[in-house]
Specification:
It is globular and about 50 Å long. The chain has a 7-stranded parallel β-sheet with strand order 3-2-1-4-5-6-7, sandwiched between helices. The protein has 258 residues and is of the alpha/beta class. The chain contains 7 helices and 7 strands; from the N terminus they run βαβαβαβαβαβααβ. The longest helix is centred in the middle third of the chain and has 29 residues. It starts with 12 loop residues before the first strand and ends in an 8-residue tail after the last strand. It has a single domain, classed as NAD(P)-binding Rossmann-like Domain (Rossmann fold). Strand 1, helix 1 and strand 2 form a beta-alpha-beta unit.
């Protein structure tokens, strides 16, 4: 295999959950530009239509509206994907949410909603799509599951987003467990743990504390679309065929140098 082929992902089939905005869209756009047939899924039909239209300017993209936080929505989406694609080479579990509230007032609903979407839905969607992942993976080029964690699952955040940080830490360990279980089936499972990126989820925090956050990052900037896309492409390519169970901080040194 030549050096240029190490990072070639063209011709593969990918799914990016929560792929209509934020880091999910950054990854989806990078995969589409790299020649990957990319399905994106989100709750809102209009957001799916808009994202699909933009992504199709660069390659093959299909958007499907589904609520992955509801078990029947996830079941329906998985069944539709297995009907459409007997082989799925890349599954990016990016869909997620956060919740912030003072410790004394933190609601049970804010705990359950975040844990369900950020952890439970990742496990069961991966479980349901496993037949297509197993069919796609080979010894030399395994299928890939890429879970999107967070530096908040690696550190103790200043913010009172208790269920979010706990959910991401749980997702990181779930990834290691899945990597051990699915490795013999030629499926690699890894985590990208982003630090601050400019997205809808982080907009208010960056508006209020952006200068202080950037000063705490050794690279002195927030993440860019190319950072998210490049890391996902690496984890989807032959260059990373021997990497599984890893949690990769994508944060400019924010979590690794504190």
């Amino acid at each position: 295999m030549s050096d240029c082929q190490l990072f070639d992902v063209s011709g593969k089939v990918a799914i990016v959950t929560g792929g209509t905005r934020g880091i999910g869209y950054m990854i989806a756009e990078g995969l589409v530009k790299a020649g990957v047939k990319t399905y994106i899924v989100s709750r809102k039909a209009d957001a799916c239509d808009n994202a699909e239209r933009e992504l199709r300017k660069h390659g093959e993209a299909v958007a499907i509206a589904a609520d992955l936080s509801a078990q029947d929505g996830a079941d329906g989406f998985a069944a539709e994907m297995l009907r459409r694609e007997p082989k799925i080479h890349i599954l990016v579990n990016n869909a997620g949410a956060t919740w912030g509230a003072p410790f004394d007032d933190f609601p049970e609903s804010g705990w359950d909603k975040i844990m369900d979407l950020n952890v439970r839905s990742v496990f069961f969607l991966t479980q349901q799509l496993a037949p297509a992942l197993r069919a796609a993976g080979t010894e030399t080029d395994p299928a890939r599951v890429i879970n999107i964690g967070s530096v908040d699952g690696l550190t103790s955040p200043e913010m009172e987003n208790f269920s979010y940080s706990a959910s991401k830490a749980a997702l990181h360990h779930l990834t290691r467990h899945l990597a051990k279980h699915l490795g013999p089936a030629n499926i690699n499972v890894n985590v990208i743990a982003p630090g601050p990126f400019e997205t809808k989820m982080t907009a208010q925090v960056l508006k209020d504390f952006g200068d202080a956050i950037v000063k705490a990052i050794p690279r002195r900037r927030t993440g860019r679309a190319s950072d998210a896309a490049g890391t996902a492409i690496f984890l989807s390519s032959a260059a990373s065929a021997y990497i599984t169970g890893a949690v990769i901080p994508l944060d400019g040194g924010f979590s690794t140098t504190r």
